[in-house]
Amino acid sequence: MQLEAAQTYLQGHGSDALITFMAGQSVVVDAAGDMSDAKAKAVELGWLDPVTGQRTTLGFLVSDSCREYLFWQQREKKLPFENALPHLKRAVFESKYMCEIGAGMGANLMSLAGPQTRLCGVEPVEAYVQLGDIFRTREGMAPIEMRAGGAEALPFETDELDLVLLVSAHQYFDIHVALKEIARVLKQGGELILIGASFSSYLKHAGGAVMTGKSDPKAFLITVINTLSYTALGRRIIPSRSGFSTSRPIYPTRAAMVRWMRAVGLEQLEPPDAVGPETCYYARLSDR
With the C-alpha atoms ordered 135, 139, 143, 146, is the resulting torsion angle positive or negative? Predict the structure, then answer.
């Protein structure tokens, strides 16, 4: 990525407009004023195709990161789920060596940053990490440790972590392998907080979008088929063709997730509960 140019444009004059413009390429945001200069900068940086005006591959990553950063600012730099349940209070995360898997640009870690918590993020996409560094510098924050890797091969020693956090990420993993790795890197008594959509919530929200013509029925059908095949066979039967790991998500049921966690020694400390449209699982490693 053109890191130096991105730093200049995302931290200097006009950066608010550029961040809002790029966030608006993936979600609807309130954008006051003329965005023509921001669009020109996005084209110059290779984030938008100059002919079609559509996002490039890099542009998708930038818009995702700008969206997360903008939302983080709008919620006053708090976690998106903070205090939604008793076990989602900040005190649960403090004084622990914790890691977020699939951290993206690191917005959740930015919310948790403080002297009492040792933080680390695991993220396979280098551009997300670079953009997170830019936004943290923009905020005057200290760097956060980020390690390259995926959930299926975590870059930690056995028994190293006190707590693992996953937020809207597990649907992209080979969940069976990822849970074994999480159990490996957690200390005995270590905890897992996993938040993500379940099969029922996916059917309700994505199915409703398909019925109203707001979503692609083919993508919906592929996700349903892959979720069912993964639950029954342990694999997605329709593989990704795009090269993006996020192109073939699955949304297992609550019962399946609890069963798979228990199989690797992760026992629920609280029953799975709703956090908005998603489900929160809170488990502790009791037996390998």
Answer: negative
Separation between Cα atoms, residue 88 and residue 73, nearest integer Å: 20
C-alpha distances (whole Å) from 6 to each of 19, 32, 117, 132, 175 are 11, 22, 30, 12, 34
| Residue 281 bridge partners (DSSP) | 194
The pLDDT confidence band at residue 50, using thresholds 50, 70 and 90, is: very high
Once rounded to an integer, what is the mean pLDDT over residues 43-64? 94
* Contact of 261 with 281, CB cutoff 8 Å: yes
Tally the C-alpha atoms within 13 A of residue 244's C-alpha that lie toward its C-beta. Answer: 9
Give the pLDDT of residue 30. Answer: 72
Distance CA 135, CA 129 (A): 10
CB 101 within 8 A of CB 122: yes
Q: How far, in whole angstroms, is CA 105 from its chain's centroid?
A: 9
- Of 10-19, 153-162, 178-187, 265-274, give the lowest mean pLDDT range: 10-19
